[in-house]
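User: Teach me something about this protein's shape.
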Amino acid sequence: MRYMKGKLKYFSVIWLGAMLMALLPAISAFAENGEPDDIAVGIADMSIPSESATAGEGLTASLITCAPGPEVYELFGHEAIRIKGIDRNGLPLDSVWNYGVFDFASPNFIYRFVKGETDYMLYGCPFSWFISSYVERGSGVTEQELNFTQEETERLRKLLQINALPAHRTYRYSYIRDNCSTRVAQVVEEAVKPRRVIWPDTVNYGSFRKAMRDMHRDYPWYQFGIDLALGSGIDRRISSQEELFAPLLMEEKAAGARFGDGAPLVKSTEMIYPGAHYMTTGEMGNTLPPTPWWLSPRFAAYLVLMISIAVAWMTWRGGLHGILLRGWYSLYFGVSGLAGCLLWFLVFVSSHDATSPNLLALWLNPLQLVIAVCVWWRGGRPAAIAMAAVNVLVLAVLSLWWPWQSQSANDAIFPLWLATAALCGGLCGARSRQ
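Assistant: First, the predicted structure itself:
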């Protein structure tokens, strides 16, 4: 028995960590996929030309697309702007402008980050500083030279210089609406006015969630966390231009974009650094191998379901006796309750525009902690059974309603619904047999 208690405690730690770490990365999904540690790189070329300044000879502007990296905040890649050539003073210039910078040392950063009040910044730095970090981590970098006139290139340079000033460089970050990629698209469009950039009208995925699932196909636990934390707002149908939120999609769409007169937006494309993944597979994609099926959320969910069915059957047959049965109930509903606390914070407190509404908050909620606590003494059993009955009712309504609403769920969620129903049914059944 002492051995089994030790095993149960060990498994409890693993299960708690797995569930919370599946949900927490979804919060990190709101982090920029670029350079979060570039806060002190400095501002490149801060001289602001006057309106009458002569345009530099030989300046070119480019879109820089960086392939995904192995970290959670790097999985979507990154987008930046490069200005290089000979400036109006005859001096060589090679700078990169990065909208993906934030200050991790700012007061209450973690709380404000989860709450959706994260401020990002535009910084400029020498291109050599920027490219070195991607070479070091093995992520490919592609450059698309823009088909700009010298006047448009100088105008873009001026806009970036002004936007990088302390008074203007900070903006309120939004994961899908206002990030390193959408900001680049906006400033490019502003620089070429009155000309108009016409982006391709082809819709690759149709929704934010579909785009995320394809790009995270080799990171199932990360996507599982996103599918738990982000609600129906990312399932609505989106336009082709809204897909610019993803740097790799922006690179693809920029290649097909044109000006109003029919001229292409991109003049030429060059792979500056192929990256480790490209050299292995020939694709600018993920940098980690696919997760084995036996380490996937779906396999873990079915394993939890089988254990839960066995525990529910033993509870229904003989009552909630023994530390192993009560331990499993406490573990399962303890993790569900803690995940529910985080999920309810995202839904009801956070200002992130992608976390609410979320129907999964009806299932994962803080009240699951009632069962986790009350199964340990007889006087608390009525409260645990009452909460179990509420769970069965909620899951029945969700199951009937789910096919008719717009939110999409991860495949691993449904076995967990069944596990919740089985455990609650076993608890209620044991009460009725007493």
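Now, about its shape. Strands lie at 60-66, 78-86, 92-101, 119-126, 141-146, 170-172, 197-198, 258-259, 266-273. The CA atoms of residues 258 and 264 lie 4 Å apart. If you'd like, I can walk through any region in more detail.
User: That's plenty for now, thanks!
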